[in-house]
Structures are given as structure tokens and as C-alpha cells.
Specification:
6-stranded mixed beta sheet; about 25% strand; binds adenosine-5'-triphosphate
């Protein structure tokens, strides 16, 4: 007897033969996978393959043309109050005159034009979220006075303030310097480890995230696939995925990273970091306890 695949209680995001069409064009189809609760996954794929569209579909903001997407046990969109979302263009879209605290409070009040006064409890929750991302004492800074890395932390604190079970981030490492990337990965590692938060992010650069990733959704040939990390870290798969020859290198410490093949270094780089930077990061990440082993 055939038993149709059912959702397990420890699944967070479940795609069943899902497809999306935008502007009359099929973006991807046959999405059929389940991402477990407590996982840290990257959505990877070349430009325009539909990574942001996938998050939009999970939030119920883009309709499916086929199949279903279930998030936290309910149809996409129904559980959005338990999802923290950090969009790619957060810094560009938000009013730069807002203070960091006002921005974070938006995660609770929804709109800065709302007439509801902010309660003491809400301020305390905002303070706690800001402390978690290392913005203590910066409450009154205006976004216009903050660096890109600090604004990114404000965006994450805003997403965290409603205590989500699932945190979704669209290219959180883009435009951050190495130290800011490292700090952000550390925050994500703590959220996952200390609160069991499921995390999903769109990412072009896998290397900084490798210490915390448990799996990846990769958009390839018009289909989204999900695999555990050890299966994703395959040179042939990644070469196909990135459209340029890459190799997976293992350091003497056992850390892995993805790099262009030596004979392809003239191609568009897969990663903007040098191998030395990545190795140093991984070493440091392991010392900081950001790895998955513990
Ligand atoms: N509102 C829209 N209406 C119609 N088509 C759209 C819309 N938004 C995006 N698209 C198209 O959907 C496709 C996937 O876009 P999406 O932004 O999801 O890709 P992506 O993988 O996130 O890209 P990138 O890596 O460049 O951020 C693209 O071809 C894009 O042109």
C-alpha cells in the first residue's frame, strides 16, 4: 500500500509539488521537501532563480500556481506572527530618521503611524532584543548615524522582538565587512542554539555560514531541492549550481570551504573572501563555540 508522505511534527517548512509563476513566467516547480524544526538552512542559486520568491511563497505573499507550502504546521501565511522576516532592502526602505529603538519597536507595534502607545513591557522586550544583537546603549542612535552592520542588527532585533519560532533573512551578509559578518553569524548561531530557533536565509556566500548550516535549499534547473549539508558540499553539484568550476576544500582542522578551482580563477568569484580569511574565520568560529558540534 502506498502511504502518501505526511507532515511530521518536527518539520518546519514543507513543500509538496509546489510551483510559482510570476508575470506569466514559471519561476520554479516540483518543490517537494521538508525542512526540520531547529535547522539552519541557506537558499542558494544564481541570480534570478527565485530565492526571494521562495521566501515570499513561504510567507504566503506570492501565490503558488501548483501544490502546497506549509509553515509551522499551517498553510503559508497563516503563521506569519511567529515568523521574523529580515528583508534584503531593510536599510534602504526604512526611514533613516528613526532611532534604533523606534525601529525595533515596529516589530511589536506594526506601524509607526499607529496610535497605540508603547507600553513599558514592549520597551523592555525591545531592549532585550537589542541586547541580544549587541546594540545595548545604542537605543537613541538614528539609523542614519549607524553603519550597515549596525543597521542589519537593528533589522534582526526588530524581527526578534516578537519572539519568532522561525527567522528568515534575505541575504543578511550582503554589504557587510568581515567583522560584521562574523558577528552576525555568531548571533544567528546563538539564536539557534539557545532558543532552538529555526533559521533560513538567502545566501550567495556559503563560506561564512558553513559553521552553522545544517542544510540548504538549492535552486537548480528550475527546481528547488533540499539536502543536508554534507550532500550539498559536493564539488560537482556546486559547480553546476554556481555555473562556474568550484572545489570544496578541507583544512587540516577539518573545516570545509568552497573556492573557485585554480584553473578558473579568472571567472566571476564564487566568494569574495580569500581562502586565508575563510580559514581564519572557521578556526575562530570553532573556538567561539559557533559550530554545530556542541
Ligand atoms: N513582482 C514580480 N513580478 C513578476 N516577476 C517577478 C517579480 N519579482 C520577481 N520576479 C521575477 O522572478 C524571478 C525570480 O526573482 P527573485 O527575486 O525571486 O530571484 P532571486 O533568486 O532572489 O534573485 P537575486 O539573486 O538576483 O536576488 C526573476 O526572474 C524576477 O525577474
Amino acid at each position: 500500500m502506498t502511504i502518501h508522505s505526511t507532515q511530521r511534527s518536527d518539520d518546519c517548512i514543507v513543500f509538496r509539488d509546489a510551483a510559482v509563476t510570476r508575470g506569466g513566467r514559471l519561476i520554479w516547480q516540483h518543490g517537494d521537501f521538508a525542512i526540520p524544526q531547529g535547522s539552519v538552512t541557506a537558499i542558494v542559486g544564481t541570480n534570478g532563480t527565485g530565492k526571494t520568491t521562495m521566501m515570499m511563497a513561504e510567507l504566503g505573499l506570492v501565490p503558488l500556481s501548483h501544490g502546497s507550502v506549509t509553515v509551522l504546521g499551517k498553510p503559508a501565511g497563516a503563521m506569519n506572527r511567529q515568523i521574523g522576516y529580515v528583508p534584503q532592502s531593510y536599510a534602504a526602505d526604512i526611514d533613516a530618521n528613526l532611532t534604533a529603538e523606534q525601529s525595533v519597536l515596529l516589530g511589536l507595534t506594526g506601524t509607526r503611524f499607529g496610535i497605540r502607545p508603547v507600553t513599558k513591557t514592549q520597551r523592555q522586550e525591545a531592549a532585550q532584543a537589542m541586547r541580544f544583537v549587541g546594540l545595548e546603549g545604542k537605543e537613541r542612535y538614528r539609523l542614519s548615524e549607524m553603519s550597515g552592520g549596525m543597521r542589519q542588527r537593528v533589522a534582526i532585533a526588530q524581527a526578534l522582538v516578537c519572539r519568532p519560532r522561525l527567522l528568515m533573512l534575505d541575504e543578511p551578509l550582503a554589504n557587510l565587512d568581515l567583522a560584521s559578518q562574523h558577528a552576525l553569524v555568531h548571533v544567528l548561531a546563538r539564536l539557534n542554539r539557545e532558543y532552538g530557533m529555526t533559521i533560513q536565509m538567502v545566501a550567495h556566500d556559503l563560506n561564512m555560514l558553513l559553521p552553522i548550516l545544517t542544510g540548504a535549499v538549492y535552486l537548480l534547473d528550475g527546481h528547488p531541492h533540499y539536502s543536508a549539508m554534507n550532500e550539498v558540499l559536493d564539488s560537482d553539484l556546486l559547480t553546476h549550481l554556481y555555473g562556474t568550476r568550484v572545489q570544496v576544500v578541507t583544512t587540516p582542522q577539518g573545516d570545509m570551504f568552497v573556492t573557485p578551482s585554480p584553473d578558473q580563477t579568472g571567472d566571476a568569484p564564487v566568494d569574495t573572501h580569500t581562502a586565508a580569511e575563510v580559514v581564519a574565520f572557521h578556526h575562530h568560529g570553532a573556538e567561539a563555540g559557533a559550530g554545530r558540534e556542541d
